[in-house]
Design brief:
This protein has about 375 residues and is an alpha+beta fold. Among the domains are: about 90 residues, conserved putative lor/sdh protein from methanococcus maripaludis s2 fold (Beta Barrel); about 90 residues, Efflux pump adaptor protein, beta barrel domain (Elongation Factor Tu (Ef-tu), domain 3), CATH 2.40.30; about 60 residues, Helix Hairpins (Orthogonal Bundle), CATH 1.10.287. It is about 25% helix and about 40% strand. It has three helices and 21 strands. The strands form five sheets. It has a six-stranded antiparallel β-barrel with strand order 3-10-13-12-11-14. It has a four-stranded antiparallel beta sheet with strand order 2-15-19-18, with no helix packed on it. β16 and β17 form a beta hairpin.
Length: about 375
């Protein structure tokens, strides 16, 4: 009985040992295969870095404002009798916009003119009498003062009637009408906005450390996202005398011709301010840059070796300092050498040492002055 049990125990030990050996071989083979595994290379596009002449410019966000802009309002109270304009209409200086009811003032003017005419006749009659010493000089002076008073009253009534005719104070384009026929307007009531659009101002801020590069007369180029392909050029005409305490920016004002009225007050625009001669920088497509809070970087393609000494095309991460942008391009001020092969697309999947496969059949946009199509 004991022999039989020992024999069964020996058989079990042999079976367990065999199974353990088989599993050991399987695990060893899997570990060896995993150690030899290399992930497939990432498909990327690349460009060779080159030094180019880059115009020295500052790029800021600006706001379009009119050279002249007011809300035309009523000078005196009255009822709207006639409206001579339409919303959005262009007008010239002095054009009549609104006439208020002046029937009462005109009646008062007629009475004032009658009083003036009578005072004038009395004055002329008394002038002959004072020369003949029929009346005293005091009576004559009183008649003369009365005649001047009636003339002043007539002039006052005419001025009141004129002030109830609301005119455009300068040439420009009207906004939306804010009055209707028969509406009573109190003094100061808004009638319609009026803005002069040609020329037009663009106001923008320049950081304190770059404000010394700005000069009156500097060239300015303006682009608006909603006006694809359109560029407007002008000159800096004014620089504020003090910095904004909250932003530490100095406000700059440029004047631009706007004969086609494409720029409207209130628009946000991209401003390029020329600050001097061109400088030599490396330009890359904006898609090359990997942005991060700890620093911006690019991936440079280089020949590398794996742990077994086998060569392959890999990438290393290179931190760079960025300059301005121009179209699809961005300037690299430092951190990159001329002639290095830089990844232009697919960088978000990369890390230092990652294998890559370059395929440049389709390249990202890399134009300094792109002209997007109208969709």
């Amino acid at each position: 009985m004991v022999k039989r049990m020992l024999l069964m125990l020996a058989v079990v030990v042999v079976v367990v040992a065999g199974l353990g050996f088989v599993k050991y071989r399987q695990i060893s083979t899997a570990m060896k295969a995993f150690a030899d595994y290399q992930p497939p290379p990432v498909a990327v596009t690349t460009i060779t870095s080159q030094q180019k002449q880059w115009p020295a410019t500052l790029e800021e966000i600006g706001n379009v404002v009119p050279v002249q802009g007011v809300v035309v309002s009523a000078d005196l109270p009255g009822v709207v009798d006639k409206i001579h304009f339409e919303s959005g209409q262009s007008v010239n200086k002095g054009d009549v916009l609104v006439e208020l009811d002046t029937r009462q003032e005109r009646a008062q003017l007629a009475a004032a003119e009658a009083d003036r005419d009578l005072a004038k006749v009395n004055f002329q009659r008394l002038q002959g009498l004072v020369e003949d010493s029929v009346i005293t000089q005091a009576d004559f002076d009183k008649a003369q003062a009365e005649q001047k008073s009636t003339e002043a009253h007539v002039a006052e009534m005419k001025a009141t009637i004129e002030r109830k005719t609301i005119r455009a104070p300068f040439s420009g384009r009207l906004g939306l009408r804010e009055v209707n026929l028969g509406q009573y307007l109190s003094a100061g009531s808004a009638v319609v906005p009026l803005e002069s659009l040609n020329p037009i101002y663009v106001n923008f801020g320049v950081p304190q450390d770059q404000s010394r590069q700005v000069r009156v007369g500097s060239s300015v180029t303006v682009h608006a996202d909603e006006l694809a392909g359109a560029a407007f050029t002008g000159r800096v005409t004014a620089i504020d005398s003090r910095l904004d305490e909250s932003t530490r920016n100095v406000q700059v004002q440029a004047t631009l011709p706007n004969s086609n009225s494409k720029l409207h007050p209130g628009m946000f625009v991209n401003v390029e301010l020329a600050t001097g001669g061109a400088r030599s920088v490396i330009t890359l497509p904006a898609s090359s840059i990997a942005y991060a809070p700890y620093g911006d970087s690019v991936f440079v393609v280089a020949e590398m070796k794996d742990p077994k000494g086998r060569a392959y095309s890999g990438v290393r991460q290179q931190f760079v300092k960025l300059g301005g942008t121009r179209g699809d391009q961005i300037a690299i001020v430092s951190g990159l050498k001329d002639g290095e092969e830089v990844v232009t697309s697919g960088a978000f999947r990369l890390h230092t040492g990652a294998a890559v496969q370059v395929n440049n059949k389709v390249q990202p946009e890399n134009s300094p002055a792109p002209h997007p199509e109208d969709n």
